[in-house]
Amino acid sequence: MAEIKLENVTYVYPKGNVTALKDVSIDIKDHEFLVLLGPSGCGKSTMLRVIAGLMKQTEGDVCFDGVDVYDQDARARNVSMVFQSYALYPHLNVFKNIAFPLGNIKGMSKEEIKERVEETAKLLDIEHILNRRPRELSGGQRQRVALGRAMVRNPVVFLFDEPLSNLDVKMRQELRVLISELHEKLGTTFVYVTHDQSEAMQLGDRIAVMDNGVIKQIGEPQEVYNNPNCVYVAGFVGSPKINFFASRFVDRKDHWAVKVMGNVIDIPVSRLPYETEGIKDGGRIISGIRPEDLRLEAVDETSDFEFKASVEKVVPMGAGLHVQLNTNGTSFLSVFLNHTSIEQGNEITVHVDPEVIHLFDPETEEAVTKRM
Ligand code: ADP
């Protein structure tokens, strides 16, 4: 178990002088499951490798339980990594692959090794395939073996680099559940890299959303989803993607409203005090409404806002419908559950709770107000 602290960590790849991490500071708590989320190239793997000690940061400090680990390599830090590409030894059977890291532990008897491997295999439900070679295994089984090899030395930190990307949807889901259970059972700190926001939402105690070498926001999945602190995070977390609208403030004298797609929607005073600095009548603002926050019926008759929209396209998605709507020339997406009666060309009434509309400054792209 370990608490990991990164303080003002910068990493520059000498080749091409690429700054992959820019002044990153983060506290990863003991036994936390932290997910690093972001698109390809944003610096997730670099951060993982710096934590592992596979690469030394250019600037800043990495501490494990308060101890600066700059001089320690991955083995001394007692971390284990699991990669997308399993990285198993093809000529060794499953037992030997899992046992491999134990070979370096002095004084460990054959019986102890056998016991440790069997214990690990049991947790992963692969006791029945210990004699097989990697080529005789499915992708999911191979990744279980890779997990076993990472677990067998009882590391203080597990680092996962997109471990499920090579697997099909069903297997990915199965292993997500397994990894989550392992986290509970092992009581160890997990740091997990993915570009898949649904994976991050499902697994993380907290999610750190990364962009171009910096952490944009870090928080519990629901907090990041409900209160994205900027346009980037709002656009990255949530599926299907949030709708953004170029909007304007409207001064209603005792409170503010926003004009979204030609409709003037009152913003609850609790969210936006009238005195808020920098806001003026007609001032530009970016509003964001998640497709799933649009509804066919009012949830609260008194506070919900309703407006008309025409149906441009209906895509059935199993449990619900993805409906492309248009209001006053602006297209946007909505998700409706269990309503099959909507058809292309219909005029419908849509409801939205003004509380769930996100507002962002068009200059800084930062959130203007926190959703209650
Ligand atoms: P991610 O894991 O989010 O996809 P990486 O940490 O792999 O991102 O990469 C971050 C940035 O560093 C990218 O711009 C990438 O092109 C660059 N980079 C990664 N590895 C190297 C390398 N070995 N040499 C030079 N640049 C690299």
Residue runs with pLDDT of under 50 for 5 or more positions:
none
From the helix content, strand content and strand pairing, which structural class follows?
A: alpha+beta
Arithmetic mean of pLDDT: 92
Number of DSSP-assigned strands: 19
Work out the helix count.
Answer: 9
Q: Please give the largest β-sheet.
A: 6 strands, mixed
Distance between the termini: 35 Å
How would you sum up the global shape? elongated
Give me some keywords for this one.
single chain, 372 residues, alpha+beta, six-stranded mixed sheet, five-stranded antiparallel sheet, 19 strands, 33% strand, binds adenosine-5'-diphosphate
Protein architecture, described:
With 372 residues, the chain is of the alpha+beta class. The chain is built from nine helices and 19 strands. The chain has helices spanning 44-52, 74-77, 94-99, 110-124, 139-151, 169-186, 197-203, 221-226, 231-236, and strands at 4-13, 18-28, 33-37, 59-64, 67-68, 79-83, 157-161, 189-194, 206-211, 214-219, 243-251, 256-260, 263-266, 284-289, 305-317, 320-327, 330-337, 347-352, 358-360. The strands form four sheets. The protein has a six-stranded mixed sheet, with helices on both faces. Helix 4 (110-124) crosses helix 5 (139-151). The model has no long low-confidence stretch (mean pLDDT 92). The protein binds adenosine-5'-diphosphate (ADP). Residues 13, 15-16, 18, 20, 38, 40-46 line the site of adenosine-5'-diphosphate.
